[in-house]
Amino acid sequence: MMVGIVLVTHGRFGEELKKSAEMILGSQEGVETISMEYGSSLADVADEIEKMIARYEDSGAIVFTDMFGGSPSNVAMAYLGSKNVEVVSGVNLPMLIKALGLRRENKSIRVMCNECADSARQSIIVAGELLKETS
């Protein structure tokens, strides 16, 4: 069983991110989304996270959140250190695509998370600066 991917985000960002990744890679199994809408109960979101990570108790799960310090991230961090779960904040499309690819390589969750974070950092490019370097 592959490592589970759980996207916990403000609004429907995680759902759309999943759709975008699937547009590029095709349909993906083991990717769950939790949308924290305006007025969502933190307890309800916590319950959803707990149910989803329970599905991946044997393989482990990575919970990606959109912004460190935001409610999705704060709720998700309650599960750090339990049930082979890691939380990575700042999810973006390159990070998610990297994670989906790494699941096939049978790497540890910690290694996967570090490589995903590196991929996300490397994907940030100021195009104008890049052009200055080449001219």
Task: Describe the protein in words.
The chain has 135 residues and is of the alpha/beta class. 47% of the residues lie in helices and 17% in strands. It has a four-stranded parallel beta sheet, sandwiched between helices. 33% of the residues are buried. The model has no long low-confidence stretch (mean pLDDT 93).
In short:
Helix content is 47%, strand content 17%. The protein has six helices and four strands, in the order βαβαβαβααα. Helix 4 (93-102) runs antiparallel to helix 5 (109-122).
Overview features:
135 residues; globular; alpha/beta
The secondary structure category is alpha/beta
Count of distinct strands: 4
Helix content: 40-55%
Biggest sheet character = 4 strands, parallel
Which sequence of strands runs across the widest sheet?
Answer: 2-1-3-4
Order of helical and strand elements: EHEHEHEHHH
Q: State the end-to-end CA separation.
A: 49 Å
Number of helices: 6
Overall average residue pLDDT: 93
Rg is 15 Å
Sequence stretches where pLDDT stays below 50 over 5 or more residues: none
Q: How would you describe the shape?
A: globular
